[in-house]
Amino acid sequence: MKASHRRGRKIGVLGATLVAASAALAQPGAETRTIDAAAHMDKATITATQAPAASATATETPSATPAFLQSDCPVTGRNHLEGATTEPEGQYTPTPAPDITQTAQSVPGTTFSDGQYAGAAERAGGWGMVQVRAVIEDGKLVDIIVVDYPHALSQSSGIAHRALPILICEALQAQKADVDFVTRATATSRAFTNSLQAALLDASTDSTS
Amino acid sequence: MGMPITLEIVDASADTAIFDEIYAYFDHVEQVFSPFKATSEVARINRGEVGLADTCEEMQIVLELAEQTRRETYGYFDVWHNGRFNPSGIVKGWAIDEAASLLYDEGFRDFYVDAGGDVQVYGRNGSGQEWRAGISSPFDISQIVKTVALYDRGIATSGSYMRGAHIYNPHDDNDALSEIVSITVIGPDVLEADRFATAAFAMGHMGVYFVESLPGFEAFQIDQSGQATMTTHFIDYVVAVPDQSKN
To answer: Residue B216's pLDDT is what?
Structure first.
């Protein structure tokens, strides 16, 4: 038995709506643009690989490196120690990213001087630099240009061999949506946000109050 | 900051007043913490107009949380970059957590609070079931790639909008630091899930192993090739659904 109930659901967008590739909802009446990235995933069948957890056999622990980082086993179901490999079907091949140019909403409550402002190049994790340039017209943020993005992998050296637990790996597979809500990464990576923030800060301090 | 807020309350007593109250709270958080508002306290800190010790009580709490997280994540989570302060990686989860506490204190028991894809759930959905969260494909946000059922849990996803931008060789055994495109973390509350998701993403492909090492947290990590890796007990949350999406 289910008593009648009132269910409320309301979606609101507060503050600045910075539109990036994973589009956020826009303020009513405002224009947004979604970037369709070049990547498109093949609908590979699931190839789940599960193996018993390998025992940890590290014979030494380098001083500052956390234990879980001491491995060169990529997270693809391969285990160098056992010699087993798992190749996913329908190999996804990433394509080079085009220049990502986006149009953002004006940021309410702020005043910027017209011009273009480059944020500092920001380190993004361990894989490179991200730099964005903010374009201000009529005192508003109208464009964000990605000046630099990670396009080469950094190779580590001297990582000790260590057996990690074997985790389940599987190829992504689309499924029917029967959900109450969706979780996904927010619009921007942190490096992007930092670089843009720096650019906007330059733009705002340039403006006369 | 600057994200869509979705609030769903199942309790019969929910009315517009509580929705207004929660949205007003998030608006307040935006005013204080948005790195894109020249008038926010974050911007004022970065312009040197206010010292850290003189900031408001909420900023003090966030600073403390940030420092604690920095220690627990071996420095991978850090609100300071090149002298710039940006606590967005922890503010979102903290604010959702606060909003959920507000709702709980007001007597609501079946609801979820969603800010930008990070969510805290309590109780059950309108059908009397556990709240179902879909994990969006980072390659196509219109597609769901995993469905999980959550009860009094927080879920957060950290990821990058950079897609297809890296040289990747899935056949190269020496390619040890291939990067990931997203990691979803489930934990006891969204503040915890959020801060560890942020740190785990910064660790690249080793992020899932970091979450594996945390008792009570599970993760679903997706790399550039469309391969997913999950922690040992992530499967406990997974709901089996039909394979093919309608397209």
So the answer is: 95
At A92-129, the pLDDT tens digits run 333 333 333 333 333 344 567 888 877 776 655 544 55
**Residue A161: which of A91, A85, A61 has the closest Cα?**
A61
Nearest to B93 by CA among B216, B211, B190, B197: B190
Query: What separation in angstroms does the CA of B149 have from each of A48, A87, B9, B129, B243?
Result: 21, 30, 17, 9, 17
* Helix, coil or strand: residue B144: strand
Work out the average pLDDT over B153-173: 58
Angle separating helix axes B88-105 and B190-202, nearest 10 degrees: 170
Reported as type and span, the H/E element at residue B97 is: helix B88-105
Q: What are the angstrom distances between the C-alpha of A193 and each of A166, A196, B2, B19, B97?
A: 34, 5, 12, 29, 22
Task: Determine phi and psi for B207, rounding to 5 degrees.
Answer: -55, -40
Around Cβ A201, how many Cβ atoms within 10 Å?
21
Mean local confidence (pLDDT), B21-47: 94
Which positions 165-184 of A are in contact with B (Cβ < 8 Å)?
165, 167-184
The closest alpha carbon to A14, from B70, B244, B163, B4, belongs to B4
CA A186/CA A93 separation, integer angstroms:
24
Element (H, E) at B201: helix B190-202
Total residues belonging to chain B: 247
CB-nearest to A13 from B4, B133, B184 is: B4
Q: Does residue A209 sit at the B interface (CB-CB below 8 Å)?
A: no
Q: Which of A151, A141, A113 is nearest to A197 (CA)?
A: A141
Pairing of strands B131-137, A181-183: parallel
The secondary structure element, H or E, covering residue B70 is: helix B57-72
- State residue B118's pLDDT score: 92
CB A102 within 8 A of CB A144: yes
Distance from CA of B56 to the nearest CA of A (A): 20
Beta strands in B130-213 (DSSP E): 131-137, 140-150, 154-159, 180-187
- Interface TM-score (ipTM) > 0.85: yes
R_g over Cα of chain A: 23
Tokens of A60: 């030494």
Q: What is the pLDDT of residue B161?
A: 52
Provide the number of CB pairs (under 8 Å) joining chain A to chain B.
381
